[in-house]
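User: Last request for today: this protein with (R)-mevalonate, please.
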Amino acid sequence: MELLEAHASAPGKVILFGEHAVVYGEPSLSLAVARRTRVSGETVGSQFTVNGFPLNPEFHAYIERAIRLHWDAVPLRLQTESEIPSGSGIGSSAALSVAINAVLLRLKRQAMPPVADVASAAFETEFATQGAASPNDTTVSTAGGGVLMSPRRLEGAEVEFLWRIQRGEREWNAHRVRIPRLPLVVGNTGMKGKTSEQVAKVRRFVEHSAFARDAIRDIGRLTLQGAEALRVGDLRRVGDLMNRNHGLLHTLGVDTPRLEQLVEAARKAPGTLGAKLTGAGGGGCMIALTEQPEECRRRLEQAGAMAFSVEASPEGLRFEQER
Ligand code: MEV
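Assistant: Here's the final one, the structure of the complex with (R)-mevalonate:
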């Protein structure tokens, strides 16, 4: 019998180390978080709709692009629902790209698509919509848990190779890594940063400045040190490296005065081990690693942020029950 509807959900993420540098093939380390985006699709009606409205590229850019890349002309009724604040650097567009592509591939193939195919389709969608991207966010959202991206395939008992994604001359190798329980607090500036603008801004800097290229390489080195510190459970060192990663992102120009205030407020809170912006920057969120999450959250709220603790999500893409 033909399958006429599909449902999928995918989590958001926080980047612990390596945003922006990963676009240039440097390593990054991220964690999926227990906030999800859900998409349902049904092949009914005479036009494409999203949440009851006609599909509009201005408001539904990622969905429209995914349809253009990975679907045909058959109209779909789509419903979306998200627990992830949009434009805040914690992976709302990646989770949407993963969930919509999972629904499209499921319906198109009339069979469960391999997760690596969904990850690849979601990356193409993000890349095409943003004009540039690494597969970091879509990979983490597909795989769940802790993910280390690297320009080379890594061997060893502590990493599990997931898949490789190539684009042009670059390749990214995704690995699952075990991350200890991390008490993380997110502070949201409430200002939306546009990933495409921040990525383009860094690109201009990198093209013209050896100093920026050095910063990118330093972030890559520090990410591998962070992965090692996490592996041995040295959270003080993880915090220290997060602070240094933030300094390099500041150098690259993606920090903002508001993000800086929140990072400072978190660092002054008792128990904080380290704090940095997370995601593309230019607004959005910062994260703090802390021994006293409640106190850190309170200080961030006092500084005017919307703040919340984040739980890791071991689960990535999930196909929901078909009715
Ligand atoms: C955004 O969450 C992460 C960036 O590194 C962009 C990307 O990897 O596509 C800034």
